[in-house]
Amino acid sequence: MSTYDEGNDLEFFEEPATQEAPGGRPRRRVRPTGGGGPKRPAPPPHGTVALARLAGLVALAIAVVIGLVFWVDSCQGQSRHDEYASYMTDIKPIAQNSASSLRKYQEAVTAPKLTLAELQTKLGLWSRQQQEYYDQALKLVPPAPLQAAHQQVLTTLQLRAIGLAGLANTIAESGGTKPADQVAPQLAKQAQALSASDLIWAELFKLPATDTLKRLGVVGVNPPASQIVANPELITPHSFNEVYGGLSSSSTSTGGGTVSGNHGSKLVGTTAVSSGQTKTLSPSSPTTVDVSADLAFKVQFQNIGDYTQRAIPVKLTVNVFNKQVVTKTQRVTTIASHETKTVTFTNLQLPPSAFGANATVNVVVGQVPGEHYLGDNHASYPVFFSLPSNG
Asked: Does pTM top 0.70 for this prediction?
């Protein structure tokens, strides 16, 4: 039998009895310090939470301000782009229309029935059109950084109006009776204003405007070009000599609708050029012509009359078994008295039926006013087209 007392077991886990302090008051039990339990964190110093909240609000405000700055800058950039794009859109048709005057001039002087008086009238009209373009440009309001460049647009249009008017006045003063070699240099001098206008547009408007747009970061907007003298040969003394000489002779040699004097053209010859080889065609015997991608026929004819002729048509046809397979026509702008010119026909595009068959190349130089004998204006050349040998 065990002598273990169950009461002792309970007493082992019980708290010790509270001892009374002297004087009858119970004494509190003090928890020993330095135990192994975690310490409770100390509360933050007074005002730290408020300071952190303030810092967060300041950071948020800074972010909002930065966002607004970027947004405003983006809006300003788009507005700047639209401003420059609108201005260049308004300038572009003025630039294009202004530059077309000499193209109209070239088309006019190749017209068969143009007279000197009609050319003078057209030049005056084109000069007035330049003044109209000037008035249109004057109403435009360019962006502030382009105001100086815009003044050069106005200068360009003024010079073109002056140059075209000078050409018209020079023709009017000549009356169609002065020698061409005297009038042509005067016309070329007046045309110098047109060349100067191209230089001003390119160097004092387009180039500075391009630099300004690049400096401001305006992308996708380009100043237009405007070149009235696309072909400098049109305004040389030689060219004016031919044009004025042809027009004045046709005006002074006509009386009651009848052209007087010696007029006419003569076909000199025709050659075939292929792969660097040249063969002269013969009207009496067949010529073998090697066909390559660069095949060309060169037709030479001479003005055997005493007057400059204009707008001379030269026609070339290729027949295979009497069926026409190629037809081409070119018009010579002017040809002076006793001058010889060459007309080149390319891109012939011969059909397969032309190879190994009897073919004929026909050339006809058009009749000029006052020309009576046409026997030497045309020729037919028998040819044999073949592919070039690899050897």
From this structure: no
